[in-house]
Amino acid sequence: MEAEQLRQIVEARARVLDDARPEAVEKVHAAGRFTARERIAALVDEGSFIEYGQLAGASPAVDDDAHADGLVAGAGRLDDAPFVVASYDVTVHDGTQTDRNMRKLVRLLYLANRHRWPFVCFVDGDGARPDPPLVPPPIVVYSRGTWDVYEGLAELSGWAPSVAVISGRTLDGNAGIAMLCDLVVATAGSEVGTRGPDGRPVTRPVEELAADGSVDIVVDDEAEATAVVADYLNYWAGGFEQGQPSATHDAITSIIPDDRRGPYDVREVMVALADADSTLELGALWAPSMITMLATLGGHPIGLFANQPSSPVAGAIDSAAADKAARFVELCDAYELPLVSLVDNPGYMVGPDAERAGIARHHARPLAALHHRTVPLCSVQLRKAYGLGPWAMSGWGSSRVMPELRLAWPSVESGGMSLEGAAYLVKRREIKAAENPEQARSIRDAYAEEMRDPASGVSAGRTFSFDDIVLPSETRDRIIAMLSSIPRVFPPVKKHPIDPR
Amino acid sequence: MDRSPIDDVEAARASQLDEARPEAVAAVHRAGRLTARERMAALLDPDTEVPYGTIAAVAPDGAWVAEAGGVDAVGSIDGVTVIASSTDFTDKGGGYGAGRLERLFALAHERRWPVVFFVDGGGSRARHPRSDLGHLELNGLFGRFMLFDGIAELSGWVPTIAIVSGPSFAGHASLAGFSDFVIATPGSSIGMGGPPMVEAALGLSLSANELAGVEMHERTGGIDLLVESEPAAIEAARRYLSYTTNRESGPPSASAAMIDALVPTGDDNDMVTVIDALVDEGGLFQLRPNFARSVITGFARMNGRSIGVVASQPLVDDGAIDEQAATKIGRFVELCDVYDYPILALIDTPGCTVGSTTDEDGGSGMTPGLNRWHTRPLMAHHHRTVPLFAVQVGRGGGLGPSIMGGLASGRSAPALWLAWPTADIRASDGFAAVRSQHAFDDVVAPSSTRRMITRLLTHLGGDGAPGGRTAKKHPVDTW
Q1: What confidence tens digit (pLDDT) does each residue in A321-355 have?
Q2: Which residues in chain A have their CB less than 8 angstroms from residue B292's CB?
Q3: Residue A85's pLDDT band (boundaries 50, 70, 90)?
Q4: ipTM score assigned to the predicted complex
Q5: Alpha-carbon span A422 to B128, nearest angstrom
Q6: What are the chain B neighbours of A214 within 8 Å (beta carbons)?
Q7: Which among A336, A415, A492, B254 has most CB atoms closer than 10 A?
Q8: What's the CA gap between B316 and B349, in Å, rounded?
Q9: Closest CB to A202 among B135, B211, B368
């Protein structure tokens, strides 16, 4: 082998590294972001990265300066678990997509699908590269790379986790990759959009996408994004030590107020119940009446979802909340994360706005998702169980799928209709005749108090509406005992994709 | 001898018939509706009905038992055996059929029989909180199914058709919401909470129709079809079911010969006329015709074979795909997939937009963009196993062609990907550029297209036959 040949390769490789490109690196840092290579280095275990297409360029020319053709890609390990990772490079033709760099992604997706490895991509970039220089034969000119990326992501959905990080402007095909991933993490202030008919970008802030469920987590910066990605993949990888109780676990009994209508933040219950420092909330800005978190419980990775009594609709399940719960259940089902639900809702949302938003159809989505799951489910009825509300969070009491464990707290109350709702029906005339809203409310509350079963917890146990009525402080250990009895087994074939929403 | 037990049963049964209840019947007729028994008679083929629970609503002392009015039966519709049921709204606002639906759902599951049911009613009744039934029966119930998990289990296994004629709230609305195909008559309503509950919870005094009218649902996607009367609803159910059976052959439509002249050359062409010219006589049976109107979904036949059709409608919002249009396509592709209907896609779209464009606001605020809803049809196409025939009719901007007609390679590639000479894919963006360079299997005249597709359907043989599978693929997403 000629020494010159070796030298050429070594030099060509060195040219694409950050050290050789101080100006490009400076530009990225000035924008408060990491370079493509820094992003990957921050994620992968040291020494584990196997790069694919380091020498790829926009053309075969030796002096081609489209380093890695604008996409750094490879396989590596994260906390010792294998995965594939890529990052667009905005300093190379604005992070645009070409047939060649899409084929690099296809290589990664092949590995991910073949070996059931997670996929992580930093997707910021400007969509298709304008006028990509055509490569002459015999190199394949028109691969179907662009399409294979989407195919590959669709195939991976529900088989192994896929994560997109949006940090910076993300247009067209770059955004398309993100929207096909299970988890989208975005740094605050980033923008997503497309080029309009006049060629100018039309974008929306990621906070807006987060509010409609298209972005799962908004973080302050890329360092935080990296940490979130690592956390997310760790739930999948499992293998945790026996987890320690949260520092707030001892106070779990005092979270629910004495006033049975009083609001509280269910996140406090979730955090108190889960292992210390183990929760990761998904969709915090979307559908605020339904809270979804990944967590560990006694070291078992779980999906935790709950009604939020402190939300504007007091935990009622509206269309967005139903969609959020359904998608979360599908996500956890696909990735074998046992489910734990914390239930306290007045039922599905009613009223003209809710109906217009299609609650009569959306309401069935979490029910159907729970019905078709195979992962175990433990539900804890914290307080209100009215109408179809408890079913939405825990499934039915018969048929092919029942919760593995259906617990309730002493504060449980349940029935076909809430006591306040019943008051309006029974005391309708009096309430209508009330002189002011305060008086109307006191008529309602007096009836509810009169009808209230002060020993509702005991009677829920007597009627075997739940497997047991437990004290809040016992709940954690009960669920851990059940989770410990059911091994986490991954089926040999994919169950189902994860519905995008 | 005194009255025999048989006489008692016959008397109880007779008390349930319309003849014995002239006032209740008159009230139903005044509302422009049919009684539960009249509905069954109109729905089912003559002499095929096997009724269940005909005296379930009569207590031993002769009193009326709540929540058991109505009719449940096995019967057939144009020779297709179905489970049929109707609530009886004169029974204090509902009940679920004759209380035998759980049983019949199990039978439908075993025998793979479609379900057609009328589900007007006010949901389950409230119970005294301190009664024996005060707490919900949440736990450890006997039986294969309850109502709601029954319908969930049937989803994607047998077609489920709900007809809503009258107010349908709470549990009844839930049954409709779980169904594959929801037909409604004018003035009806479907909602999770009825007027009293809404007044209680929100202080709003609204009629059922103001609160959750099917006219609103028709535009927002809550139902699949609004028809003018109960007989028309029954006819629609009949037509929907007819597609579960293939025919030996089918004649081309009268406009087939003119198709080359019908194909759009501008934005003012109605894609429905193009579809009608391409498919068999009888044309397209549209689902959700007034929801997300920039795309079209429906059933038709090609030389007798039942197919699903998805198409752009350039007449509305330029054929752009907003979130609602994407979900309309995604759900329909899933529906076709589970029931094994091959799909024909006709594509003429500028691409994706965000912000609802098909609401009553008439399309203001439509901007190009992408969110997660747009990828749902990509997932649906990728995971379908039914064959797809894609025709690039006009424009194919952005992700548009993939949303309508699947991705161009791999598992979701169409069995046949054609372009008509009117196809207009400028390399305005990367997606379109790649597709235009190599995607099409051929460029053909519209008038040659029917022949190619029907021939390929023949070659594909049994793969496309509805109902041929032995296990459920997946449920039909309710939204």
Answers
A1: 999 999 999 999 999 999 999 999 999 999 999 99
A2: none
A3: very high
A4: 0.93
A5: 9
A6: 371-373
A7: A415
A8: 10
A9: B368
